[in-house]
Amino acid sequence: MRLTGLFPQFAPEIGKPAVGFSATPGIEANIPAGDTVHFSAAARTRKRASTQAARVVQKPIRFDAERQVFTLSGKNMEYHLQITPDGELRHLYWGKPVGEVQPELLPFNASRVNSWQPALDIVPREYPDFGRGDYRTPAVQVFAPGSGQLTSHFKVVGHRIRPGKPELDGLPSLFADRKQAQTLTVQLKDDVTGLDLDLNYTVFKDSDVIIRSSRITNKGSEPIFIEKLASFSADFAPSDYRLLKLSGASVRERQEEFMDLKTGNINVSSRLGASGHEQNPFIALLEPGATETHGNVYGFSLVYSGSFSAEAEQNRNRYTRVVMGLNPMSLNWKLNPGESFQSPEAVGVFSGEGLGGMTRQLHSLFNNHLIRSTWKDKPRPIVMNTWEAFGPNIDHEKVVNMAKEAKDLGIELIVVDDGWFGEKYPRTGVDALGDWKVNTKKFPKGLKGLAEDINAQGMMMGIWMEPEMVSPNSELFEKHPDWIIGQPERTPSPVKHQYILDLGRPEVQDYLIDTISEVLDAGNIQYLKWDMNRTMTEIGSFHLPGDQQKETQHRYMLGLYRVLKVLTEKYPDVLFEGCAGGGGRFDPGMLQYFPQIWTSDNTDAGSRMNIQAGTARVYPPMTMTAHVSDVPNGQVGRTTSFKTRFHVAMAANLGLEMDPAHLSEDKKAFAKEQIAFYKQVRHLVQDGEYRQLRDTFTSNWPAWMFTATDGSEALVFAFQKMADVNVGIPALRLQGLDEKARYQVSGIEKPLTGAYLMNVGLVPRFSDDFDSNLFHIRRMD
Ligand code: GLA
Question: Which of 531, 596, 602 has most ligand 1 atoms within 8 Å of its beta carbon, as the pocket-test mutant?
Answer without folding.
Answer: 531
